[in-house]
Structure formats: C-alpha cells, structure tokens
Write a structure and sequence with these properties.
seven-stranded mixed beta sheet; 14 helices; 3 domains; alpha/beta; TATA-Binding Protein; Alpha-D-Glucose-1,6-Bisphosphate, Chain A, domain 3
C-alpha cells in the first residue's frame, strides 16, 4: 500500500492545511492501537502550533486505551532515547514555522519502517475505544538527556571559543549549556524562541548569521542546529560552511571506523577519500532513517547526510546534533576546523529546488538525466528527486568542473519547470 500521509520522515505539512488537530488525533489513536495501547512518550519543538497538536495526539492515544507521557519542548534525539513503547515528536524539523508534523520512534529508539508506517495508516479510520488511558506531564526529560550526552560524548573544550546557533528551536538554552559545561566559551544565537521564529534566518538551514557571528567575533568555530535538533552543520574560523559530508568524513577518520553509511546526495569527494583510506561506504536513499537501517544491517556505527544528519551509534540510537557537535569539537585536537576539514576535497555541486504542481518525473526529464549521466562516465552526475516534505523537485548536478555542473543544473531545472510547473 502506498503511504498517503507519511513522507521522508513522519507526517509533515502546513498546519491548518495538511496537518490538522483532527489528523494528529487520528495518528495518536492509530499509533497507540499499532503498539497495543501501550505507553507513548511525546516531545515537541518550539512552534506555536505544537501545544495544540501535542494535546490532539495525546487525546488520540488515550482514546485507544494508551497512556501518554508529555515531555514538553524536547529535542528529537532525546525522544528517541526516552521512548517507551513508542516515542513521538511533534515537529517539522528544519521546515519553516508554518509547518508542523509528527515523527515516530519505536521502543528501541529507531525510526519506523515503511511497512510500519503503512500499518499505522491502515488504522487511521479507527473509532475511539471504550477504555480511556491517562495523560502525564513530566519536566525532567531534558535534564536526563543532557546528562546522557555529556557523560558519553562530553570532551574537554577548555580554551575553545564557540558560537552556537540553536535555530530558536528545541536546543535553545540546552546546547549552549552543554558546551559551557565542557569548558568552552560560548556565544549563543537563535536562542530566543517565540513560537514563530524557529528556523527563520538562523540555524542549520541558514548559516549566514552564524558565519557573520564567527568572523566578527573571532570565534574558533560555529555550530548550527535545526529546529528539532537532529541536524548539525558547522562554520570554520574563516566563516566557511562545513556540511554533513565533511563532518562525517572528519569523524570517520577521528573515530577510526572501517565503514560508513551515507545517501545518494553525498559528495563524490567523500567517496574518493573513503576509498583512499580503505573505509567501506554503504549508500542509501535520501533520509536519515535509511542511513540508520543500513548501519544496523551492516553492524556499522557512523553515517549521515550532507544536510547535517550525523549518526554515531556508540551509546546512542539515532542521529543527534548535540552529540555530533561535541564529537566534531573533540576531533580538532588543537587544530583549526579549516585544517581538519581540508582532508576532504569537495567536488563542485550545484543545486536548485524547483516548485512544481506535480512531483512525478516525466519521460523527458528521466531521459535527459540518463543521457547526461551516461555521457559523463563517472566524472560527474545528475540526481533529481521529489522532496518528501514539500511540493518541490530537488535538482543536483556534480562534476569536477564547476561550470559544467552549474550549466547542467540550470538546464535540468528549466526542463523540470517546463514539464512539471
């Protein structure tokens, strides 16, 4: 059965249009029935719509006889660690404030499989039961999460000056405290959520403010999270962006792993470095849950996405922006971030997000993609895919020659607009 509501990572959309309290209540009921009317831990990010949707989800859970424990504003990786029979996050992750959604983790803190999501969708029409569960509010979730991360990933950061961008999201207040407790001098930005400013002009989706802050303040580096805390990107001392591919490459060498899992979006320069160092690479579809599946299947620890999902499964169950940030700082060992990142040469990539009315690629688009990839003989590539969360087609062109990549990206994007716009 094709999934109607679930996308790349849970259910997500504009509040009041695709995502409504009624849908979220039905998701709560369906998820509770799917788990056997058990205990569900729920956290949310800082969006204004989160409170109403959290309450709606809880109503759904108790209407199926389940018990719902509400943790309030909690980073997504904390929910994965604290999941009971089910862990749920009311969040739209990196998306703008008008979006919201529901993410799910099983009792082991793992993202649900496609099959599990299909099974939950099949239960969306279920009526409320006779037996009612209970709702409980807890206030110690972030405290226990922070202690877990510091105990397992904390390192001595004395003498390091760090700018931390919390995206006005779930890490506000929490992440700066973590770096300070490790001994760093911290300057926090994007640290004043008001319900409507999550991911707006800050965070991992917009590094401009962090780059300016690092350069103007003479900081050693900058760390940026997205709104729910499962993504992390960095800025070096010169203000240059360090993406997820580079971060995974740095950690692969520092942690001396023998295999990694990444997605089809990962830069070809990453693959070249891994071949050179004898590290096996497993490539998955886009989505951190597919990276997680590959890590578990292969018995590997480290993986991630260019967008900033960095997963390290030593003492953790999912991708965690704060853990990744601490690991990155620990990998510096007295060097600058620019020095450490220079180990990987990035091939030039050009990307464009094309708004479309129809996300189904036409034969003309598919044929042109195939032609270019065939002609380039491995010296470049074109990758075109539909967004899992927005009405967009994402175009990526990558080649050793930047001009060639730019021209190919523009050409394919124009074709997509003509065919699907």
């Amino acid at each position: 059965m094709a999934r109607k509501y679930f996308g790349t990572d849970g259910v997500r959309g504009v509040v009041g249009e695709f995502v409504t309290p009624e849908l979220v209540e039905r998701l709560g009921r369906a998820a509770s029935l799917w788990t056997g009317a058990a205990k569900v831990f729920v956290g949310r990010d800082t969006r204004a719509s989160g409170v109403e949707l959290e309450e709606a989800f809880a109503r759904g859970v108790i209407s199926a006889g389940g018990d719902c424990i509400l943790g309030g504003v909690v980073p997504t990786p904390a929910v994965a660690l604290l999941a009971l029979d089910l862990g749920v996050v009311i969040s739209a992750s990196h998306n703008p404030p008008e979006y919201n959604g529901v993410k799910f983790f099983d009792s082991q803190g793992r993202k649900l499989s496609d099959t599990s999501e299909e099974q939950i969708e099949e239960l969306l029409a279920a009526a409320p039961g006779i037996d009612q569960g209970t709702i409980e509010h807890v206030e110690i979730a972030t405290d226990s999460y922070l202690e877990h991360i510091l105990e397992r990933f904390g390192v001595d950061l004395s003498g390091l000056r760090i700018a931390v961008d919390c995206a006005n999201g779930a890490y506000s207040g929490l992440a700066p405290q973590a770096f300070e407790r490790c001994g760093a001098e911290v300057h926090a930005i994007g640290d004043a959520p008001d319900g409507s400013n999550i991911n707006v002009g800050c965070g991992a989706t917009d590094l401009a403010l962090l780059q300016k802050t690092v350069v103007d303040g003479g900081f050693d580096l900058g760390i940026a999270f997205d709104g729910d805390g499962d993504r992390m990107l960095a800025v070096d001392e010169n203000g240059a962006a360090i993406d997820g591919d580079q971060i995974v490459a740095i950690l692969a060498l520092d942690q001396q792993v023998d295999q990694v899992a990444v997605t089809v979006m990962t830069n070809l320069g990453f693959h070249a470095l891994m071949r050179e160092r004898g590290i096996r690479v497993h490539t998955t579809d886009v989505g951190d849950r597919y990276v997680l599946e590959a890590l578990h299947r292969e018995g590997a620890l480290l993986g991630g996405e260019q967008s900033g999902h960095v997963i390290y499964l030593r003492d953790h169950v999912t991708g965690d922006g704060l853990a990744a940030g601490l690991l990155l700082c620990g990998a510096l060992k007295g060097r600058t971030l620019s020095e450490v990142a220079a180990v990987m040469t990035r091939w030039p990539q050009h990307k464009e997000n094309v708004p479309v009315a129809d996300r189904e690629l036409t034969p003309a688009v598919l044929d042109e993609i195939e032609r270019l990839n065939r002609e380039w003989h491995g010296q470049g590539r074109v990758l075109v895919r539909a967004s899992g969360t927005e009405p967009l087609i994402r175009v990526l062109a990558e080649a050793e020659n930047a001009e060639v990549a730019s021209e190919a990206c523009a050409s394919i994007a124009a074709l997509v607009r003509r065919e699907l716009g």
